[in-house]
Amino acid sequence: MSLRINTIVGLYEDHGLAPGDIAANQGLELEIVELILRNNSALFRESSGVGAVDKLVSDEVLKLVSQRLINTALSSQDERLAAKIQMRLVDEARGRLDKRSEVNIHVNFDEINRRVRAMKLARATNGKLVPDAVEIPAETAVAA
Questions:
Q1: pLDDT digits (tens, 9 = 90+) for 70-91
Q2: Domain extent for 77
Q3: How many CA atoms lie within 13 A of 129 on its CB side?
Q4: Same domain assignment for residues 39 and 10
């Protein structure tokens, strides 16, 4: 995952920000943030009802294996092994290791964001959109 995707997922999972707040914070459209979260956050998929997971191992066996991993992570003499297990447990708890049936598409989110904004501007102006229109902040515009 890229740094920007990690930031968006972290803001949602670790800081509890809503997708709308993340969109405003990152300067992206809400649809783009939801797309990123749908592809990269099990917590988002679970809360939105997308991607239910089938259980392959019984809860009892999973509990025993998890306890054994936790014990190994906390008591191992090999610090590298303990660190790897600890990172794995955190990633698993966050759902970052989920296999998804969705196809992961790596795209330029800035380009998609620009196009979504252009479509919204077109709707707002009844289809009178100048091709490749770029919004220029007032403070950077040069007076003619």
A1: 999 899 899 999 999 988 888 8
A2: 59-94
A3: 17
A4: yes
